């Protein structure tokens, strides 16, 4: 088979592998509601799915300040952490809003302190790609290689696609996280609300369950009846009061 025949097959395989990576990433993050958990899932999936990448990390900033890291290998988490100093490929990628590549850290001079630390940990090459999450959170996904020249043009393309897709998924996670927090606050308000709080107390006594579960019982009844939760609570309280009077 000649090279002209091999090249399209290799390119097709690259496209299929990238599609599989993005599909796996979507499946891994689609139901996650915790941002830190999503970052851990992201680096784990990327590390396992991208050939030639030995480790993967993520650097996050919230409102311009370091807001956490995730690493496929905890021993390398310090490479993604900006708190010791901003001199790193990740910060360069974030500041310049472009992909940063160092194929061989033995010849790298841009981040001297970081490069020394990385080489001591066995890292020989790195790609950092900026990730836009939302108006508050930005970051960079970092792909590390244990051999020089292991990161190719193909890895740069994969990193670019991965960063763009990860940004969309992480934005959705942040939105679900906010919605969950708002729902929790609403639940707390409902539990102290007069009639709903009273109804929750009745259900807790009847079923021997905690308050959140009792509130969920009210919600399920409201959904089934097609009426507001407060109306269900009022009916329950009235019914219980009448039964006590009798």
Question: Could you explain the architecture of this structure?
Answer:
- This protein has helices at 3-29, 35-49, 89-96, 112-120, 153-192, 194-207, 211-225, 229-245, and strands at 55-62, 65-71, 100-102, 125-132, 137-145.
- It is α+β, with helices and mostly antiparallel strands and 246 residues long.
- The chain has 2 domains: 3-175, Beta-Lactamase (2-Layer Sandwich), CATH 3.30.450; 193-245, Arc Repressor Mutant, subunit A.
- Strand 1 and strand 2 form a beta hairpin.
- It is elongated and about 85 Å long.
- The chain starts with a helix and ends with a helix.
The strand order across the widest sheet is 2-1-5-4-3
CATH topology of the largest domain: Beta-Lactamase
Gyration radius from CA atoms, angstroms: 26 Å
Main sheet record: 5 strands, antiparallel
Q: In one word, what is the shape?
A: elongated
How much β-strand is present in the residues?
5-15%
Oligomer: single chain
The CATH class name of the largest domain reads: Alpha Beta
In angstroms, what separates the terminal alpha carbons?
91 Å
Protein name: GAF and ANTAR domain-containing protein
InterPro entries: ANTAR, GAF, GAF-like_dom_sf, GAF_ANTAR, WH-like_DNA-bd_sf
Pfam families: ANTAR, GAF_2
Keywords: Transcription, Transcription regulation
